[in-house]
Design goal:
Blueprint lengths: L1 H9 L5 H9 L4 H9 L4 H9 L27 H7 L3 E7 L32 E5 L12 E3 L19 E5 L3 E5 L2 E6 L5 E5 L30 E8 L5 E4 L6 H8 L17 E6 L5 E6 L14 H5 L7 E7 L5 H15 L8 E6 L7 H10 L4 E3 L8 H18 L9
Parallel strand pairs: 1-3, 2-4, 9-11, 9-12, 12-13, 13-14
Antiparallel strand pairs: 1-8, 2-7, 5-6, 5-8, 10-11
Helix pairs in contact: 2-3, 3-4
Length: 417
């Protein structure tokens, strides 16, 4: 056996005699030949056999290696996106309480009258809302937040550590309300709002030292932190908003003119949350277009989650009414949409707008288009989101509305959201 091992170690590949012994010999047996066929060297095979090892399979074999690949990330469905997209939260905030002050006296050899040395307690941590452009939903906001408490003071005039502030990152366009009243509108990146203040720390007996009171025994506890219950509402920030009834083709139109990929199906209420797409131009200017979920009659009365959908239209600088030409009277849809917007917020339907007559690829819609133009004084743009017909005119008119908005603004430049 030793002679066989010496011959195996001398070269990478075994000789014909060694191979013959691997097949028919008594020293190696079948296990050695099986390991050799799997890619294991004869030396390791004989070592495993002679050393009395338990494992008879080499871990260096290619067959036992883990298959490494780059599996494609599975796209989330519309229902899964809805679970992660939250545009309303009711949160209870409780700031941290201040630490209590210490009551102690200095004790040291040869200092009989050391005096008071109790330190003050630390202040409690506050809770702050911070707008972050990288956050797209209120899903990460939990219902209850508690700030960090301040530490208590100690002897030798040691003050307690202040509680660290708690930051709650919210998307741009988040409105903070209390009892229905708007408190602050977080519309800029990095904007902060201190929601609740942390409690002040208590005073140690060293604080009460005076000429009249040389040995004060008084130490105050920390003040409790402020508590509030606030409502967070997310309102989508976009330059233009696609407004229309369910199944009017808003999602298909957004896919045709921008880089957004909302879900599209042949049934109403396919879009359950707003989607924002960017329309890019050759001069590197970008216009944000929001796909607002379908609005039904009585939406201002909160029918069909109407208030939740109408909330996202408030931030749009101009509106694009998408009408379905396959309906019997598409011009009546425009009247109902304007009525719902005005009932929710007076004057909302009077913003700069355009009327988009969708589904021009269907037969017998030319007569309805002429009737629609006669009933409206606004510009009507016939398009087909399915085939992409006349989408260029819509994109150019969208840029005209955007340029008009820039000229009418006081700063003369777009607000970067």
């Amino acid at each position: 056996m030793l002679a066989a091992l010496s011959r195996v170690k001398s070269s990478r590949w075994p000789s014909s005699d060694t191979l013959l012994r691997c097949v028919l010999g008594r020293e190696a047996g079948r296990d050695e030949w099986s390991l050799f066929s799997l890619g294991c060297s004869p030396a390791s095979a004989l070592w495993r056999r002679t050393a009395g090892g338990v494992r008879d399979v080499s871990t260096s074999s290619r067959l036992s290696a883990k298959v490494r690949g780059n599996p494609k990330k599975k796209e989330m469905s519309e229902k899964e996106l809805t679970r992660h997209f939250i545009d309303y939260r009711r949160v209870k905030l409780a700031a941290g309480s201040g630490g209590k002050g210490a009551c102690s006296f200095h004790s040291e050899p040869r200092k009989e009258w050391g005096g008071p040395d109790g330190g003050n307690g630390g202040d409690g941590g506050s809770i702050i809302f911070k707008a972050d452009r990288f956050v797209k939903s209120l899903a990460q906001v939990v219902p209850v937040y508690k700030g960090e408490h301040g530490q208590s003071g100690s002897r030798k005039n040691c003050y307690g550590r202040n509680g660290s502030p708690t930051y709650i990152c919210v998307p741009l366009g988040t409105v903070v309300k209390e009892k229905g009243q708007t408190i602050v509108d977080l519309a800029e990146h990095g904007q902060e709002y201190l929601a609740v203040f942390g409690g002040a720390g208590g005073k140690g007996n060293r604080f009460f030292l005076s000429n009249e009171i040389r040995a004060p025994m008084t130490a105050t506890p920390g003040v409790a932190g402020q508590e509030r219950v606030l409502q967070l509402e997310l309102r989508t920030i976009a330059h233009a908003g696609l407004v229309g009834f369910p199944n009017a083709g808003k999602s298909s139109l957004l896919r045709a003119i921008s880089n957004a990929r909302p879900a599209v199906a042949a049934y109403p209420f396919t879009t359950l949350n707003p989607h924002v797409g960017m329309v890019k131009y050759r001069d590197h200017e970008q216009v944000a277009v929001a796909d607002i979920p379908g609005i039904i009659r009585g939406a201002h009365l909160n029918r069909g989650l109407g208030i939740s959908f109408l909330r996202h239209i408030e931030r749009c600088r101009f509106l694009l009414f998408v009408l379905d030409l396959s309906s019997p009277e598409p011009w009546t849809q425009l009247q109902h949409l304007r009525y719902e917007l005005d009932q929710y917020e007076p004057g909302l339907s009077q913003r700069p707008q355009a009327i988009i007559a969708n589904k021009m690829d269907l037969p017998d819609v030319r007569e309805k288009l002429d009737t629609l133009k006669s009933h409206s004084t606004q510009r009507v743009i016939p398009v087909s989101a399915l085939t992409g017909q006349n989408t260029e005119e819509l994109i150019l008119h969208l840029r005209e509305l955007y340029d008009g908005y820039l000229q009418g603004s006081e700063e003369g430049k777009p607000t970067r959201w």
